[in-house]
Specification:
This protein has about 70 residues and is of the alpha+beta class. The protein is built from one helix and two strands, in the order H-E-E. The longest helix is centred in the middle third of the chain and has 11 residues.
Length: about 70
């Protein structure tokens, strides 16, 4: 894979956006929705030859355990 094309990088998490001819464009939009439900962030960095997705989900201290 050559990375995420530059013209798609700012639209990557929108529904119906795909860099593949037969892609539905729903995978990353669904992933982002799930991560946001947990107050998290999903981020993509891509350069030719290297694409990295980071998912950050905050942990909450369980008050019942104390």
């Amino acid at each position: 894979m050559v990375g995420v094309p530059e013209h798609l990088q700012d639209k990557l998490f929108l529904p119906m956006v795909s860099g593949h001819p037969e892609g539905s464009g729903l995978g990353l939009a669904i992933a982002q929705s799930l991560v946001r439900r947990h107050n998290g962030l999903i981020h993509c960095e891509s350069v030719p030859g290297r694409t990295c997705f980071s998912i950050l989900i905050p942990l909450e201290k369980d008050n019942a355990a104390n």
